[in-house]
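User: tokens in, sequence out, please.
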């Protein structure tokens, strides 16, 4: 499978709305020599018209999720008003780590063109929120936090944009702060409680119940259809929940 097919094959909901308008320009620049999107004989414009004409929630494919993530990454990278080479280098390493060399090459090429476009963060997030299940939206934000923390610290401007994205993706504040807690272990002594969405004054039984609830919420099977990279991210969150629980158990002597 070519990198282009891996990235764009099976596009669904992102062909319409503000993301469709954005990636239409990008695809024209990046894949001018490709008359049709992979796996389909219809042209991109025909498929986009069909997407705009249809109504109701569509099932998000793995390719939809990848394109959505690239747009969200661009939102974070544009946070401070300019994109630096060092940021692109960090993103490239991030993409290689999650998508492999070929996938990263196609993704980075698209990302550079997305960065050159003007678009509304809230509008693209609203489109994603309307078409992507809640568990997958959580993992998209998990990706963004990991990327922002690549240098060991999440810059204020990046955090503010990710805050906005989480709100526009309709994540609950408790779920979002639970993700943020995984990146505040060194700064916040109560990070483990925040990760489990509880407070330090809760009982041991409440700790156990919170762990069971969170383990169920973040089980990787909930995002099985969103692509292997999203499933891996959910697995990392699942491990983080276990780490938080073990940390609290040690502190309290829970057996």
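Assistant: Sequence out:
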């Amino acid at each position: 499978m070519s990198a282009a097919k891996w990235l764009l094959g099976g596009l669904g909901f992102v062909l319409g709305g503000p993301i469709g308008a954005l990636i239409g320009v990008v695809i024209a620049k990046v894949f001018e020599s490709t008359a049709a999107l992979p796996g389909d004989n219809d042209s991109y414009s025909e498929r986009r018209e069909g997407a705009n004409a249809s109504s109701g929630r569509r099932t998000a494919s793995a390719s939809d999720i990848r394109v959505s993530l690239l747009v969200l990454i661009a939102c974070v990278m544009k946070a401070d008003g300019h994109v630096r080479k060092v940021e692109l280098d960090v993103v490239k390493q991030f993409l290689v780590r999650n998508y492999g060399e070929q996938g990263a090459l196609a993704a980075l090429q698209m990302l550079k063109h997305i960065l050159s476009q003007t678009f509304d963060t809230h509008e693209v997030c609203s489109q994603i929120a309307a078409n992507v299940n809640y568990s997958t939206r959580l993992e998209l934000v998990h990706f963004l936090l990991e990327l922002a923390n690549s240098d060991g610290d999440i810059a204020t401007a990046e955090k503010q944009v990710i805050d906005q994205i989480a709100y526009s993706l309709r994540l609950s504040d408790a779920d979002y702060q639970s993700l943020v807690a995984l990146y505040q272990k060194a700064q916040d002594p109560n990070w483990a409680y925040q990760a489990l969405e509880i407070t330090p004054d809760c009982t041991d039984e409440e700790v156990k119940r919170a762990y069971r609830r969170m383990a169920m919420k973040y089980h990787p099977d909930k995002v099985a259809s969103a692509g292997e990279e999203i499933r891996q991210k959910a697995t990392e969150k699942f491990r983080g929940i276990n780490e938080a629980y073990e940390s609290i158990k040690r502190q309290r002597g829970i057996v």
